[in-house]
Amino acid sequence: MKRRRLEEIFFKVLMIASLVIILAILASIIGVIAYKGAASLSLEMLVQTPKGGYYLGGKGGIANAIVGSLYLAIGATVLSLLFALPLAFALQREYVNRSIARFTRLTLDVLWGMPSIVYGAFGFVVMVYMGLNASLLGGIIALTLLMLPIMTRAMEEVISMIPLELKEVSYAVGATRIETTFAVVLRQALPGIATAVMLAFGRGIGDAASLLFTAGYTDYIPHSLFDPSASLPLAVFFQIGTPIPEVQNRAYASALVLLVIVLMVSLGARLLSSRFSRNILK
Amino acid sequence: MRWRRTRDLLTGKSMLLAVVAANLLTFLIAFGLYLKSRPILAQKSISHLLFSSSWHPLEGKFGFYPFIVGTIEVTVIAMVLAVPVCLLSAIYLAEYSRSRLREMLRLVIDVMAGIPSVIYGLFGVIVLVPLVRQLGQFMGETTTGYSLLTGGIILAIMVSPIIISVSTEVLRAVPLSARETALALGATKWETVKHAVVKSALHGIISAIVLGFARAFGETIAVLMVVGNVARVPHSLFEPAYPLPALIANNYGEMMSVPLYDSALMLAALILLVVVGGFSLVAHLVLLRVERR
Questions:
Q1: What ipTM describes this predicted complex?
Q2: Any idea where the domains of chain B sit in the sequence?
Q3: Inter-chain touch B22–A108, beta carbons under 8 Å
Q4: Smallest CA–CA separation between B137 and chain A, in Å?
Q5: Which CATH architecture fits B68-292?
Q6: Per residue in B47-77, pLDDT tens?
Q7: Quick check: helix, strand or coil at residue B42?
Q8: For residue A260, what is the domain's CATH number?
């Protein structure tokens, strides 16, 4: 009896220890980046583009990367919303039969797990066939591919939770499928859709591997879709790769900026969903 | 009336088109990469590409063996480190913790899953690399700290959220009756978990691990930053390795100037797609069956 009791306690301690390890790692990641980044963050870094000799420790900032990242992520979010919304609506049982919907969900799940470097490589192939160079447009295409499955899957999950009775009321008064979709489903799922959009945005703005081939990197803020574009993740990556301490410090600061954006977006997404879901019929 | 009908039909058809397009996307990506990797496949046999260790693009030698081994080793290290910790955490979350704590920790794990990989990589460079260097010195190995082990540790951290969240979900889906039977026989809580709950959730838990494996297999930037990137089969934990994703990411600049180089890198991406896609397809199929039951 005693041995069994000891085993219980032993494993309970082990489980709590595991959780503590996970939490401690997360806390130390955020702590280290915040501590190192805050030390070298300045207003100059946020509002200036790199000046001459920046990568040797010269003056300037990472405004090119901040603005570039926002362009890329916002562009890709809009583009994937255009595809994700109809797709998520289409997976309702009014539009496709169950097994096709199930198969599509499976496809999206597999695409969700695809490494972003694969999207980068495919984006590169597409760009070669379209005759594009590394550009804002190329980066947006690659990010859209990356974000589409995330966004669609998150939306579809919310849409499938809408009670059937609600839709039946709409059909009973003679509405067509598309009218029901807009009048009932869209309205009910709106907070969920907003959350999905923010989730995908957060994933997109932090991704580096898909942008390496497709968006390139530049010291200037892009003026057209065909200009190359800098991005925050790549700014971190390139700056930490130099041997010069000042430039490495700027990598920490860039990482902090990125981390703050991502955390704000992902916490905002959860808050949004809990705040708005109060008015939604369950 | 006619117009409403037409509009419904039109939107319905175009939505169907979206569904078809989404399902074709995987094949389109695979086909695009295959098209680009055909030149190298035409010149070298696939077994030569996969099992030759000689990587000298300038001489036209493209042996993926060290990269493939590097990828597998770094992924296996990550899984060895991550799986016990993640499973224990998941069991605690699913079986022991109160729902309030569970909700809070789910939020924390979601946040962790959303942190960009370049930040994990930076954390690896700042904290883990010096740590591993010291550990190496302590164990009498000369190492820069940029090594297989460092890559494995950072990957273990990165795949934790997905393993924990999927296996927590699977454990929660185990019906109460499975637990009640064991408890009624006088089993302690842990014995119930060990003999009844984990056993009936086993397929799902394995799927969670496979999903983590697939995620680790294709992770690029974070690994690239800490793993050392030397194209040689590593012989110890403290030696550098060079996984496939890192190979692709590192050489995008020069690939257009060397013949067949771009083709070789696209083939590497195709290999990643097939391996990762295959693993996650199987895992999701198993999870679907678990869900339906």
A1: 0.92
A2: 68-292
A3: yes
A4: 23
A5: Orthogonal Bundle (1.10)
A6: 888 888 888 888 888 889 999 999 999 999 9
A7: helix
A8: 1.10.3720.10
